Amino acid sequence: MTKPHERVSHAERESAARMLADATGAGYLTTEEFDGRVAVAYSAITRADLDRVAAELPPEWVRGWEKSKRRAERVFAQQASARRHLAAYVAGSGLMITIWLVVGLATGAWYPWPLWPILGWGFGVYHHTKPLRQARALRADAGPPPLSRGML
């Protein structure tokens, strides 16, 4: 639960400014209203000051905007996690292959043991990135976003 007297961060002011820009693009605000509200958003000190900039916007539009923002943040976090997992997989696979080559050259034992951990770990990486690939395919199949008010 938010309290009106809580101080807001610069990131929250930036988020409010992005919301106002999207509201202007959707036709809910004029350019003059946008300029005034952005100035208020950047000078906001408390949560009550920041809540005033979105006071006359339709509540369902604001909730939809916040939901899409959270979804975008979640997708970004998933992508970053998948990139880290893939980088660890590549580094670990390279290390195992290097050890295999050193042991093979030193002892003449050329059994391809790195194949098994690389395949198992690769299976995990593949399934870790599966939701991201599915979401990308759904976005490609969906086509362009529908026009909303003020986009014509």
UniProtKB/TrEMBL annotation:
Parts of the chain that traverse the membrane? 86-111
UniProtKB keywords: Membrane, Transmembrane, Transmembrane helix
Please indicate if the UniProt record lists rRNA processing as a keyword: no
- Pinpoint the DUF1707 domain residues: 7-58
Amino-acid biosynthesis as UniProt keyword: no
What are the residue boundaries of the 2TM domain, all occurrences included?
71-128
Q: Which range is the signal sequence, renumbered to this chain?
A: none
Q: What is this protein called?
A: 2TM domain-containing protein
Organism the protein comes from: Asanoa ferruginea
What taxonomic classification does the UniProt entry list for its organism? Answer: Bacteria, Bacillati, Actinomycetota, Actinomycetes, Micromonosporales
